[in-house]
Design a protein that fits this description.
4 helices; about 140 residues
């Protein structure tokens, strides 16, 4: 009987990272264009600035997801996998909560933003650990 591979097994991490980068990049560009064109006249300047921050951080971290894929291929291990999960989760929580805050005024979701930021920081830290202390 063949056992299915775990979603984050070593062979799948590079592909998942590139897929996550493609999704983050695509939706980040779309959000940026949407904010610049469709929302410019619909949101007040503060809400538009929050939306633009969400899109900017999403786009800044899409290449980091690509780096996760490369690092997971070169130096596979838990640190590379955790970097991918942390950066992807951080994008969703940080940018997602800012999108919701700017579009829906959902102030309660603003409490999630720092958690997303912490995940982004953890992701960058794990990328460094994956390179400095590769699994043997």
């Amino acid at each position: 009987m063949k056992v299915a591979a775990a979603p984050f097994d070593g062979a799948r991490v590079p592909r998942l990272a590139v897929l996550a980068a493609a999704i983050a990049g695509f939706t980040g560009v779309a959000a940026g264009a949407f904010g610049a064109h469709a929302l410019k006249t619909r949101l007040d300047p503060d809400a538009l600035a929050i939306f633009e921050t969400a899109a900017r951080y999403q786009l800044l971290h899409a290449p980091a997801l690509l780096a996760c894929g490369w690092i997971a291929q070169q130096w596979p291990g838990r640190a590379a996998t955790l970097a991918l999960a942390s950066l992807a989760g951080g994008i969703v929580l940080f940018s997602g909560s800012l999108y919701a805050l700017s579009l829906a005024g959902a102030r309660a979701l603003g409490m999630i933003t720092p958690l997303g930021g912490a995940l982004l920081l953890l992701g960058w830290l794990c990328l460094g650990v994956a390179v400095v202390r590769p699994r043997r």
